[in-house]
């Protein structure tokens, strides 16, 4: 409770991240500023993801998993972002 008010539902009911998912969460936050922006947000490029993996030392199967997860997370983020102002 802050200032006598209960926490918003989205904070009270926030999902708990598994410790191993921190890599993907932090990576996504780091990379989201690298996306192209014009009339709308663009997807993260595979080259940007690979460069991030190289710089941070993510290799092998972990790199493959990272690229797959971030690519799919990015697609969902772009979908959410595009629909954000159109909620009924």
Report on this model:
The chain is mainly alpha-helical and 88 residues long. The chain has one domain. The protein is built from 4 helices and no strands. Helix 2 crosses helix 4 and helix 3 crosses helix 4. The chain starts with 8 loop residues before the first helix and ends in a 5-residue tail after the last helix.
Write a concise synopsis of the structure shown:
The protein is an all-alpha fold and 88 residues long. The protein is 56% helix and 0% strand.
Note the overall shape: globular
Mean pLDDT: 86
How big a fraction of the residues is strand?
A: under 5%
**Total number of helical segments?**
4
Secondary-structure-derived class: mainly alpha
What's the main sheet like?
none
Could you give the order of the helices and strands? HHHH
Helical coverage, percent range: 55-70%
Q: State the domain count.
A: 1
Alpha carbon gyration radius: 16 Å
Number of strands: 0
- Low-pLDDT runs of 5+ residues are none
- In angstroms, what separates the terminal alpha carbons? 30 Å
Descriptive terms for the model:
88 residues, mainly alpha, 56% helix, 0% strand
Topology:
Elements: H1 9-12, H2 22-31, H3 46-56, H4 60-83
């Amino acid at each position: 409770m802050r200032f006598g008010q209960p926490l918003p539902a989205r904070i009270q009911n926030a999902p708990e991240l598994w410790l191993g998912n921190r890599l993907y969460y932090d990576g996504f936050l780091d990379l989201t500023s690298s996306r192209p922006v014009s009339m709308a947000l663009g997807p993260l490029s595979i080259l940007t993801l690979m460069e991030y993996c190289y710089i941070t030392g993510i290799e092998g199967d972990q790199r493959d998993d990272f690229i797959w997860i971030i690519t799919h997370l990015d697609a969902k983020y772009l979908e959410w972002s595009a629909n954000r102002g159109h909620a009924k």
